[in-house]
Structure prediction request, 370 residues.
Amino acid sequence: MSLRVDNLKVWYRTLRGDVQALDGVSFGVADGELVGLAGESGCGKSTLGKSLIRLDGRMRHVGGSVELDGKELPIGDDLAMNRFRFKEVSIIPQYAMSAMNPTRRIGTLVAELLESRGVGLAGVRDELLRRLELVGLDPEVLDRYPIELSGGMKQRMVMVISTLLNPSLLIADEVTSALDVSTQKAVAETLVDFRDRHYVKSTIIISHDLSLVYQIADSIIVMYAGRLAERAPTDALVATPRHPYTRLLLSALPEVGVRYGTRRLEGIPGSPPVAARPANGLPVPGPLPAGLRQVRRTARVPGGGARPLRRLLEGVLTCCGSRASPRPTGSAPSAAASWSRSTTSTWRSAPARSSPSSGRAAAARAPSAG
Prediction:
């Protein structure tokens, strides 16, 4: 097991009190696994990613532990985390296109970063040039300032910098959110390629875009209000989602070739819950559809708090207390399954899906964690 997160609780300090951003998150990531982390804005995705590398000084580690390759990460100590950053755990930040210092040439910026980690540029220069070629960047970019690069070039440059020291865990936070579709595809394929070339051991991709995550992830974690709602292998989660919130997310996605008159898109009513006022049990939006009303009833446990994740099927985890039955053989496919087929043609032919060490085969081999 490359990464194991156990009952992680992270709060933010504010003038109006603590914001409970993560509330008892537990999961694991296997060696070679690429995990997608999805959910709506404010659910805690980016907080979870940043907490694994201790990237925000406002964070307060309230409880839980993070173990990487058998070593516990000191995520509550900013100074102690310095020796792990970029070497053991690295991140492509959500603001990647503005992450590079605009007053430094890119080559100088890379040299300074390496020096801060006790590594000389001369020792890794050949590898740096190989990786620039891999992502389609000319070595001349090292002599340029960040402002001279396009958005896609900046994104790819940050990807190279973040993985140059071959970290065990890479956190990719919204790496495609501000890119056009063709560049999104190139960036997504590069992430899988980096994993397959063993530049990184495991990857967590944080994204709002379930269709993107579906194309490249071995398994998907769905978050809601600072907690894990469901985790499953990618195909299983999309074809037969177990949690009502996951089903609502999938039902809000358009299908290729389906007209409005045939099937209306369904939004999720209400607003995301306020993390400064956590609910008792699993918080849900309102007014509530029947499925989510059921979640609120079944998620309550004596003394408050949320019901822990429980195993429903092989490799499928959910915090919903009700046990859902698999769809009978021969029955009509669900809307989610129909959506998954409609998106398959988009990137399914990408090389990233054909590698023996990637895609669904890796998901089948990876042990499920909770």
